[in-house]
Amino acid sequence: MRKEFVCLREPMTNGSDRGVPPPHARPPSTRLMGRKGVALRLMLTALFEAQTRTEPGERPAGNPRPLSHAGRDGVAWTDLLATDADDAGNSRTMITRQDKQRRHLGNGLEALERACLVALPHRGEPRNIHREFMLLEETAAPTPKPPYSVPKNSDDSFVVPTALFTNGWISVLSDAELAFLLMTMLMYHPDEEEGVAVPAKARLQLMGIGPETYEAHRLLETFGLVRVTRQAGRAANGRVASVGTEGGRRALPDLVQLLPEGLKRDGYSTVADKLDSFFCR
Exposed/middle/buried for 143, CB within 10 Å: 0-12, 13-18, 19+? Predict the structure, then answer.
């Protein structure tokens, strides 16, 4: 994945290390965050799907996958996107689970188009405008943007473990947890056992991760996906715990480390077990 999906090359606003930049001034990973939306998970899933059928440096050969109703042996986009949709209605009207999934998918694609991350070639047609949507380069740059191509191994990209998708983590983590996890993937270096420090100002202005999103590390640590080492002068949410200096030194940023082995476990069962044990104490 291109680094600019998670971290801007330079700040878009002259903010402080206290306030989170507005959505338009954040990278896609935090610009797409929403409490109920599916845009971030949809974008990550679409990037993964494209990479499974495309060589590095090449562009995907179209998007032949149907949005829904793929048939007995097919896999539609709604099949790749987990939602809480269920059948609903009464004796006169009925909305099926698949209809709801299709609506969630459409809302997600609309959000991705607004973020300049997909193009809808059938926009303006009377029906089925989201079909054959086309991925654009996963950067924060505004339009016009080139069509998506799979990154080559370079300094401009980083590795997102396939286990995020194949073990179901993509479907059970919140947007804030995914954004924090992407940050740790971007910074991951196996030789840095204690982790990598991320100054608060860089975390806010370049990644759009404020104190509320930073709190996601608590559950991620519980799930065994990350480790956060708090250093002198920092509270658990990443804020400075006390004003001034401590022992003649300024507050040091936390050390954050991805734990790739954690992703090798099944996401659903791990989350369910941890939450059950948490609420049944």
Answer: exposed
